[in-house]
TrEMBL record:
Record-linked Pfam families: Abhydrolase_6
Keyword Hydrolase recorded: yes
Name the record gives this protein: AB hydrolase-1 domain-containing protein
Record InterPro entries: AB_hydrolase_1, AB_hydrolase_fold
């Protein structure tokens, strides 16, 4: 049974988190620290905790700011976010990791840091912004950080972090009809759509781009009770600082592309900044179209020798954007086996 806690940093920021606790009798366990995506908080990872101890893993999932129990953003910080300035995200991640190290939470098996969907903006800001983290904090984290896990892509729509653009993939935040009814309506549509299971043809990517539509009939959130939906999905947080519009999308894209370039593909950065840290990129094969397209494009860049870090890729058959809910045992096994192989 996992437990809930709230940590408070020296600067006054609070972060609520969910912790499986350490495996009984183990000191060499690995600690997975995860940051959730857009709208869906870290409480929704509860099934992952069930498979932690049998894999000598401690799982901790942190609520980002503006979500349950964590410090809200100020108006000035919201303005910075909407302007595309996300360097503070990485500093928040580093401070949280430093807190866990100081608290004796981390076993000798090291740390895996994971971002899910939009949460990858936080973790890639951490890995992709040398100089943002104070040297003493960097030196505290560096010996422990084994891998950064990119789960389910990392900005909305997810493919834009790779600098890709195309029009074939529908999403509610850039669909005029959906957005014309207001951001809350678009956010509610997003919650259902992003949890869909999409059957992608093997030849789904043509030279001109992906050839898929928005159509699907199976959605993860349809399996949830109203109580679970209320507990795991927080539209107010989206509306406060992170609702996506065509105008804000380009700003997210610009900063996100720079982050992934520095974090994974910049040789100078990778050689001097967490040089021993690898990257695992994991997605479900039946995720939303833009996620799969992004996964394949990332894999192409790695195959072409562009990666400056050790990179592993995992594409889970039958999995959607909610591997942690739909396939938690498989999800944990993939992470443990691929990251521990390093």
């Amino acid at each position: 049974m996992h437990s809930e806690h709230t940590l408070k940093l020296a600067n006054g920021l609070a972060f609520h988190y969910y912790d499986s606790g350490a495996p009984s009798g183990s000191t060499d366990y690995t600690t997975l620290v995860g940051f959730h995506g857009l709208g869906f908080n870290s409480d929704g990872f509860e099934h992952v905790h069930l498979y932690a101890h049998q894999n000598n893993l401690r799982t901790i999932f942190v609520n980002r700011r503006d979500y349950k129990g964590s410090t809200p953003y100020s108006d000035g910080e919201v303005a910075d976010i909407q302007a595309g300035n996300e360097t503070a995200y990485g500093l928040d991640v580093a401070r949280v990791l430093g807190h866990f190290i100081d608290a004796g939470v981390v076993g000798s098996g090291g740390i895996l840091v994971m971002g899910w969907s939009l949460g990858n903006l936080w973790t890639l800001s951490f890995l992709g912004n040398p100089g943002v983290i104070p040297r003493d904090l960097y030196e505290k984290i560096q010996p422990h950080l084994r891998s950064v896990i990119v789960y389910g892509q990392f900005v909305y729509p997810p493919h834009v972090i790779l600098g890709l653009t195309y029009d074939q993939d529908w999403n509610p935040f850039i669909d005029p009809e959906s957005f014309s009814q207001g951001p809350l309506h678009a956010t509610q549509l997003f919650a259902r759509w992003v949890s869909g299971h999409f059957a992608h043809p093997e030849a789904g990517i043509a030279p001109s781009g992906p050839q898929w539509t928005k159509e699907t009939t199976e959605f993860t959130v349809d399996k949830w009770s109203s109580e679970e939906m209320a507990r795991w999905f927080e539209p107010a947080a989206v509306l406060h600082c992170q609702h996506i519009t065509p105008a804000t999308l380009s700003r997210f894209q610009e900063s996100a592309v720079a982050q992934i370039q520095r974090a994974v593909f910049d040789a100078s950065s990778a050689a001097s900044y967490f040089p021993n840290t690898s990257v695992l990129y994991i997605s479900g094969a039946n995720t939303i179209p833009s996620c799969l397209y992004g996964h394949r494009e990332f894999a192409r860049r790695v195959k072409d020798g562009e990666a400056a870090r050790r990179v592993k890729l995992a594409l889970i058959p039958g999995g959607n954007h909610f591997l942690h809910y739909e396939m938690p045992e498989v999800f944990v096994k993939e992470i443990v086996e691929r990251c521990r192989a390093d």
